[in-house]
Amino acid sequence: MLLHLDASARRASFSRELSRRYAETWRAAHPDAGYVYRDLAADPVPHIGEAWTELCDYVLEHQITDIARYKEAVRTPAQEQAWAVLAPLLDEVVAADVILIGTPMYNFSIPSSLKAWIDQITFPKMSLAGRSFVVTGARGGAYGPGTPREPVDHEERYLRDFFKGHFAVEDVTFVHAELVNACLDPALAHLRGAHEASLSAALEAVSR
Ligand SMILES: Cc1cc2nc3c(=O)[nH]c(=O)nc-3n(C[C@H](O)[C@H](O)[C@H](O)COP(=O)(O)O)c2cc1C
């Protein structure tokens, strides 16, 4: 199953266009594999609350690593409510073979809508090994290898580190459309050609 998430606050969005094309390609190649779509910007998941942290603490204290057993942590009405929010999100992740995330870079990092989703579905010592993550991103500047801004790309670095370090997922792919701000910022007009080249390469990659 392909779980497809989008996180851009814009509807006319580069990261949405890239994820949409990736999903089209994937679904054409796997017509019977199933598909779930979730728009984290239009339909945001709530931030975790205290009852969620109680579930998390229970899972850690009781060394529950089997996701199917997390429900044992639910003991109070508030925890029931927290569980009702997170369980469908978690079910989608567990059922997925590929988790596709269309996301902009916001303030050197990820949108809070995406972070809220990550917080909801993540528990201690939780493995998603065997699955793949694909991230289709868009950013105003350029953060590739050798650029002055490479060290402040806390979007790709964070997601890569988290998916590998916490979820034990080795298969993580990023495709970025860069220099998007060159379309808007007159001071970056000279970089419009570089933006076009980045976008074309990204569109080609996701269509492959
Ligand atoms: C709130 C906000 C913060 C942003 N922060 C950054 C940033 O730190 N670095 C950057 O290169 N671009 C930044 N941008 C530009 C976006 O990454 C760019 O517009 C991108 O195209 C957004 O993706 P989308 O087209 O899918 O909406 C920001 C845009 C917004 C709206």
From TrEMBL:
Q: Which GO terms describe its molecular function?
A: electron transfer activity; FMN binding; oxidoreductase activity, acting on NAD(P)H as acceptor; oxidoreductase activity, acting on NAD(P)H, quinone or similar compound as acceptor
What UniProt keywords apply to this chain's record, in alphabetical order? Flavoprotein, FMN, NAD, Oxidoreductase
For this protein, what is the EC number?
A: 1.6.5.-, 1.7.1.17
Instruction: Show the catalytic activity.
Output: 2 a quinone + NADH + H(+) = 2 a 1,4-benzosemiquinone + NAD(+); N,N-dimethyl-1,4-phenylenediamine + anthranilate + 2 NAD(+) = 2-(4-dimethylaminophenyl)diazenylbenzoate + 2 NADH + 2 H(+)
Q: Which InterPro entries match?
A: Flavodoxin_fold, Flavoprotein-like_sf, FMN-dep_NADH:Q_OxRdtase_AzoR1, NADH:quinone_OxRdtase_FMN_depd
Q: Name one Pfam family in it.
A: Flavodoxin_2
> What is the UniProt remark on how the cofactor binds and its stoichiometry?
Binds 1 FMN per subunit.
Organism ancestry: Bacteria, Bacillati, Actinomycetota, Actinomycetes, Streptosporangiales
Q: How does it assemble?
A: Homodimer.
Q: Where does FMN bind?
A: 13-15, 105-108
Looking at its record, which EC class is this enzyme? oxidoreductase
Q: What does this protein do?
A: Quinone reductase that provides resistance to thiol-specific stress caused by electrophilic quinones. Also exhibits azoreductase activity. Catalyzes the reductive cleavage of the azo bond in aromatic azo compounds to the corresponding amines.
Q: Which cofactor does it need?
A: FMN
- Keyword Signal assigned to the entry: answer is no
Q: Which residues form the Flavodoxin-like fold domain?
A: 2-181
Species: Nonomuraea muscovyensis
Protein name (database record): FMN dependent NADH:quinone oxidoreductase
Protein family: Belongs to the azoreductase type 1 family.
